[in-house]
Amino acid sequence: MTEQSAGQTYPCNTCGAQLEFKPGSSALTCPYCGTHQQIELKRRRVVDRDWASLASKPRRPRSEVPANLFVCTQCGAHTESDTWSDVCQFCDAPVVADEFNPDLVPPEGVLPFQVDRAAARERLREWVRSRWFAPNRFKHVDEAESLKSTYLPHWTWDADTRSRYTGQRGEHYYVEDSNGNRSRRTRWHLARGTVSRSFDDVVVPATNHVSHAYLEKLGEDWPTGQALAYQPEFLSGHHTQRYDIEPEQGLGHAKERMARVIERDVRRDIGGDEQRVHSIDTSYSNIKYKLLLLPVWLVVYLFGGKSWQVLVSGQTGRVTGERPWSAWKIAFAVVIGLVVAAVAVYFIVLSDSSGGSPTTGGGVGGY
Ligand SMILES: [Zn+2]
Ligand SMILES: [Zn+2]
């Protein structure tokens, strides 16, 4: 099931090859002759959209939306792909979708790549070298050619929340028994109240293709306020994954994240020395969303018959990911640790058994 996309093309004025977005710049560049072409920004503002109007509109489920069929303008090859941009698998020319299926939410904004391939490789190299107890073969992962610049879709959510809660406030007090020993007790009081908060740009992944645990580590510092309004030029020469997590599900994840913050607010509101939370009932209003494309250098490598992922933020160069552990190196370290402990114990015992010596540690120092 595919639909054809003629694709956006950015031919080089000098040599006719396809231009690619150059990380860290606001220009397209030709990989063959180096020609630069400034990207003209068409729309300034990134807009948070009203969730209620999207939620009430019927959409086909994401799984029924056909894949894109890209036709390479350089070699004519057809590529079927679940992406919004890719490179031709035969000639490496960039292909970028020029329209979005009406059943999909189109990307609203993009954080263009700041970190280029060489810098990403350098950060990866530092990360790999600083991993303790990694197998030697893993130390060559940074030489792998699989470093792919990929825009990963994320949902961002805004909401005004109002949460009614019930719980208990614990206050400490001290009692003294007949022997004069003080002990601490807690007196509990019923507590109820309301807390409110406005959330802005809670970022959650919109794809299951990459580990959420690692994405969330990168996601703590995405500067969503710096996102630019979506323009296909930023995608040229890079991969862009279509989202596979529906916005409804994304909102569910965002609410879980908000709930953790709300619970902290409730505990602060209850006050006292300890808190018990019995119930929190949150109502959400003014919910806004957008689909953002965030830049990640992806490395997938095979190790021990399993595939592993490492992510380098295309914004900050921060690295997170999976790494193998060397059973040999860990075992060796444990043995060394045991030997050191045994030697220490030996000397302690020795110095104890020479008890009666006037100087401490004399049993050792005397030799
Ligand atoms: Zn050129
Ligand atoms: Zn091609």
Please write out the topology:
Elements: E1 2-5, E2 20-21, E3 27-29, E4 36-38, E5 49-50, H1 51-55, E6 67-71, E7 78-81, E8 83-87, E9 94-96, E10 109-110, H2 117-129, E11 148-176, E12 182-205, H3 212-219, E13 228-229, E14 239-241, H4 247-270, E15 274-303, E16 306-313, E17 319-321, H5 327-353, H6 362-365
Bound molecules: zinc ion (2 copies).
Structural description of this entry:
The chain is an alpha+beta fold. The protein has a domain at 1-40 and 66-100. The protein contains six helices and 17 strands. The strands form three sheets. Strands 5, 8, 9, 10, 11, 12, 13, 14, 15, 16 and 17 form an eleven-stranded mixed beta sheet that branches. The termini are far apart. The model is unreliable at 356-367 (pLDDT under 50). One zinc ion (ZN) is lined by residues 72, 74-75, 77, 88, 90-91, 93.
Q: What labels describe this entry?
A:
binds zinc ion, 11-stranded mixed sheet, alpha+beta, 17 strands, disordered C terminus, 36% strand, 367 residues, 3-stranded mixed sheet, single chain, 6 helices
**DSSP helix count?**
6
Global outline: flat
Count of individual beta strands: 17
Instruction: Give the SSE string.
Output: EEEEEHEEEEEHEEHEEHEEEHH
Q: CA-to-CA gap between the ends?
A: 84 Å
**Largest β sheet strand count, sense and barrel closure:** 11 strands, mixed
Mean pLDDT: 86
Report the oligomer. single chain
What bound compounds does this protein have?
Answer: zinc ion
